[in-house]
Each structure stands twice: as structure tokens, then as C-alpha cells.
Amino acid sequence: MDGLTILGLLCLLAGFIFVGIEMVVPGFSVPGISGIVCLIAGVFLLADTVMEGFFITVIVLALLGILMAVMLYLLSKGKFRSPIILEEEQKSTEGYLSSSDLKYLLGKKGVAMTDLRPTGVGQIDGINFDVISEGNYISAGEPVEIIKVEGSKLIVRVSEEDK
Questions:
Q1: CA 146 → CA 89, 107, 114, 122, 151, distances in Å?
Q2: d(CA 28, CA 61)
Q3: Could you tell me the pTM of the whole model?
Q4: DSSP alpha helices (H): ranges in the chain?
Q5: Which of 53, 83, 118, 159 is the 20 to 30 Å CA partner of 64?
Q6: Which residue, among 37, 34, 39, has the nearest Cα to 58 in the 3D structure?
């Protein structure tokens, strides 16, 4: 084996490693781009003819498919930890609220912290919430009342009693 063949094989190996890292870490960044460059360089260094380059490319693509299947299997079985999966539980005892927990706010009064055109921030019982006005513009500082809770949406209108 001559030096170019060894260099081509090393480029292919590095390319597979970089692409494998890219499959676990989200985003198209340095490992993905480096992997593609290394794979292309490896094909060019190993191929003597266009037909040979085509066959090497087909083999590389097949190996990438196998690598992807193996990575998906390992990620699904928990052998690798993916950085895009939340590991911690968000418990209500620690201050996390689900959208179904917001029904208790129905009828509560507060203040618009920002202009609501129609969305903005309202403060209810000392806590800031994302709120949506009933359709009208509401200026910051005006008293608001929650009139409807739809999932995680808090619909408010100007509170006439507090004006």
C-alpha cells in the first residue's frame, strides 16, 4: 500500500467518526462538515478512475446507512445519551406548571406588564404570565382579568372594576 491509499483510508475512517458524532449531537456543525469533507477526500484519494470512485461512493453511502441504523438502535435502547432529550422530570412541586394546571387562574385579576397587541406579559398574583388580550389593544399598567383558559393560553380583558 502506498501513502495515498493509507491517507485515503484514514480520511474515510475520520469521516465516518465525524458523521457518527454528528448523528448523536444535534445541528449541522463542525463534525458534520468535517465528516463530509473527509469522506469526499477519501473517495478522491482512493479512486483511480471515475467508475472506481462511483463504486467507492456507493460503498460509503451504504456504510453510512448502516452507521445511521446502528446509531438509531443504540439511541433508542439508551446506550448513548442524546443531548436533545430532557433527562430531568419537571415536577409541579419544583415550580413547573403544565397547561392543565392553569385553570385555577380563571377569574383572577392582575396588571398588564407590557402592551398587549394582542399578546404580551401580564402579572397575576406576583407571577408573570404570557397572556393574550380578547382582541383589543391593552396598554401596559392597565388592570386585566383572565376570562378564559384554553390549554396554555390565558385570554384577558381590561378589568372594569379596577379602573
A1: 29, 5, 16, 10, 13
A2: 18
A3: 0.50
A4: 3-24, 30-46, 50-76
A5: 83
A6: 39
